[in-house]
Structure formats: structure tokens, C-alpha cells
């Protein structure tokens, strides 16, 4: 760690560096300042774990740091770490962690970086930039407010090292691009502030970035926030995309990236976003055509199914599918200078997003063509009733339209029928000794639900089943996406999580199926016991 500090001492531009080389052969003032900066990291880590808002984590038997999520939540009691011991929250454990981090950095690169703190709406470097940015997400996180928690302590020790950075008593708030009504007076004013500011940032990026390189923007904001007239909509996404389009960008690609940890607090037992989406943008050409809504819709219908298959082949988590499909959809939308509706009015981003969602839904429904008749029946039944009981007459009627029969569905091992009622079997009810090789009426539905059942025992158990099923499992993954989408719409969180978990484990299950099995256990859901 000291090596790293000595290296940084010469390369970091501190405000009060003398640059004088001491007898030891390196910049002494720089060394002192660098040491001060790194010790201040310890101060931040200590303050995060040694305050009266740290909860107790019973399973790990240790205090949890305050910023487990981006908020300062109330807690009624708090766990007190021992700062002079060796356990969680102690100075010694922080030093060890810090050292581990630095050792990793030192191994990676010895290149000096350059960082400048600036308001993104007004940047000093005005040309030739290669830009990759992770912008603020509408009203998602109040970074400036939250930063005060650390800033006030850091300011005490680092004011002399970075006088400009620490010139204000608290973190500057006014320039922060975040749509917070309490700062701007109303929801409307906050939205306008964010849209205007973000548009200005994007315009600068469009003008100042190097023309040979696209700019990439990371976006990790879940779109399904609220349900409006036009379907699921999100002001955050719309406002952000508005700004990107207004600045003259078109989207030329989208890369979903697995950036979020499964273990983070917001992800625990929820359908929180698992990926970030990197939007790849280039300036829209001046001769971009204007098209009608109908033409836009046909382009979406022609291109989205392929994009969807591509995303699925990349094993995008079902929970992120609708979000990820915005990219290819918006790539179509932003290719045109404008899309006009029947009244000659330009189509709004909200309307475009609604159409993208609609076409995505249709594309998913079209994949039903790959399923057998029994599975198509089960899907339609599941959409209506889930795993609950329904009338025999309704099941019979549905079976005619799906070209199957209730008796056959019982034989297939999908449903239970009796006393005028019918219901789908839950994964926990499926037989343990099921062998697809001897199943004379093998269905995609069974494959998925047996996989959900065995995944509860671990990925190795699921891999054994996948090895027996062979290439047939690919279509099972398609069914998982469809089932997840249905569950999300019907707010059946428990089942949704199990289908999502199955897809997320897919690459590992496939790998284990190809290689020799090894012992391990990852649990999915409770196989719908509570449904
Ligand atoms: C999504 S966060 C980026 C987080 C970062 N990738 C990380 O891992 O720490 C967005 C960042 O934009 C910053 N920001 C907000 N308004 C800004 C402005 N006007 N100029 C520059 N940065 C701004 C926020 O303070 C926040 O740090």
C-alpha cells in the first residue's frame, strides 16, 4: 500500500504540493497528502459503520453499514461496532480491506489518471472527447444530499489538501441534475429542470465528442414504474430519452450488462433490475427521413422479434427484458428525424415506448408457435388462473381451441382434474422420479416446471435433468420469458422470481450439464408453495 501511495504522491496534483524531493527520493509533501487522502477513506468507511443508524445483521452476526442502499433510513436501535477490535466495523478490518483494494489497483495499472470535478452542463474540455457516462437517473438518488454524510468529516481533514473541492460548508446542491420537487418548488418544475439540464449535457456531448467514436450511456433505471393510459410508463426513462433525442442523437445499439450484485439489499427477494443497459449513441444524420406511425410500427414488427431472440440468446434476465427491448425499439424510433401520427403530430417518446412494449408482447406471444399444444393450453390457462382451480367446462372449451383435450393434459402430467374442477400442478407436486426419456407425452411446460422443481435442490440437480433433455431445453427457456412476463403483469411475484431465477442460472446449468457434476446448492423460490 505504501508503494502505491509513494507512486501517487508524484502523480496526483494536490493544491499544496511543494514538489520538493526529499532524501528518500520522492515528493515528501505529496507523500504526506496522499497518505492523508487514503486515511480519509478510512474515516469514511468508519463513519459508515460507526454511527447510530447501523442495523444488526443477525445471520452474519455483525452490524450493517448505514449506506446499504442510497438512503438514510430510520432504525429504532443500532448495533455498536468495536472500532479498536478486529471485527466488522473496526479500524483494523477497514485497513485490511483498503489494502486489498489498493493492492488490486497497483497490480492493474501504473498509469496516472486525470480527474476534474465540473458541472456536466458546462464543461471546460470542449472537443475530441471519447465519452462513456453513467448519468443521474431522474429522481432516483439524491447523491448530493447523501454525500453530506461523508463530506462534513472529510472536509475537516482534507480542506488544506483540496481547498477548492472543500470550499463549501456542505456539498453543492443547486447544479445537481436530479428531479427533486423539494428543491425546485414543484414536480413540474423539477421535471423541467432535469429535462433542460440533461438536454444541455447531451447537446454538449453531441458537439464535443470525437466523431469517430460513439458515446455510451449507462442506464440502470427500471422502466415499469407506473401504469398509465398507454401502458407501463416511466417518467424517468421518457425524460431521459427525450433529452437524448432532442440533442440529435440516435441509438445505434444497446448492450445489457450484468452490473448489479444479487446480494445487494434492494435485490434481496425482489424483482429488482439485474442489468444496466449501455446505450450506444451516434449523431443522427441530417438526411434522416420522417415517417408515419404505420411505417414506424412495421419497422418495429420487422426488427424487434430478431432483437428479442438475440437478447434471449444472450440470456438476458427476464426481469430486464422489457427494459432491454427499449434499446432496439428506440434504435428504430431515433433513426428517423420524426415519426408523425395520423393527425400529422410528432409521436411522443411515451407513445413510442408504448408501441415498443406492445410489439415486444406480440413477439413473445409469437414464440408460442414453438410450443406443443398442451403447453399452449397451459399458458392460456395460467394467464387466467395461475395455479388456482377453475371450472372443468372452461378448461374443456379452451382445450378445443388449442387442439388438445383435458384427459390428455392429465396424462401429460400437467393438470389435476376432478369433481368438475381443474388446476395446473405446482412444481412441488410434480413427481421426483420423472424421467423425460420414458415420458410419452413430453411437453415444454413439464420441462420448465420440473426444472424449477429440481433447481430448488441446486444447479447440479438441474444440470442432470438438462443433460437428459438435451437440446429441447432451449425452447424451455423461451417459455420462461413468456411466463415471467405474464407473472409480472398479473403481479404474481413468487412465480415470476422462480422463472427469472431459472433463466439466470441457465448458463451455469448448461455448463454443469456439459461437464462433470460438482456438489453445490443454490436455492430458487419455494416452488410456489404459497400460491
Ligand atoms: C448514476 S451516478 C454515477 C455513479 C457512478 N457510476 C458510481 O459508480 O459511483 C450519477 C452521478 O452524476 C452526478 N451528477 C449529477 N448532476 C451533475 C452535474 N450537473 N454535473 C456533474 N455530475 C453530476 C451525481 O453526483 C452522481 O455522482
Q: Topology of this protein?
A:
Elements (H helix, E strand, L loop, with lengths): L1 H10 L16 H22 L6 E2 L4 E2 L27 H18 L23 E2 L9 H16 L22 H4 L2 H22 L6 E5 L6 E3 L2 E3 L1 H12 L2 E9 L18 E8 L6 E3 H21 L4 H16 L4 E3 L8 H18 L6 H13 L4 E2 H10 L4 H6 L3 E4 L2 E4 L19 H12 L3 H11 L3 H18 L2 H22 L17
Parallel strand pairs: 3-4, 9-10
Antiparallel strand pairs: 1-2, 4-8, 5-6, 7-8, 11-13, 12-13
Helix pairs in contact: 1-2, 2-3, 2-4, 6-7, 8-9, 8-10, 9-10, 11-12, 14-15, 14-16, 15-17, 16-17
The structure holds S-adenosylmethionine (SAM).
- Compounds present? S-adenosylmethionine
Helicity range? 40-55%
Classification by helices and strands: alpha+beta
The largest sheet is: 4 strands, mixed
Estimate what percentage of residues fall within beta strands. Answer: 5-15%
Terminus-to-terminus distance:
54 Å
Radius of gyration: 28 Å
List low-pLDDT spans: 223-233, 263-272, 517-527
**Overall form:** globular
Strand order of the largest sheet: 3-4-8-7
* Number of helices in the DSSP assignment: 17
The helix-strand sequence is HHEEHEHHHEEEHEEEHHEHHEHHEEHHHH
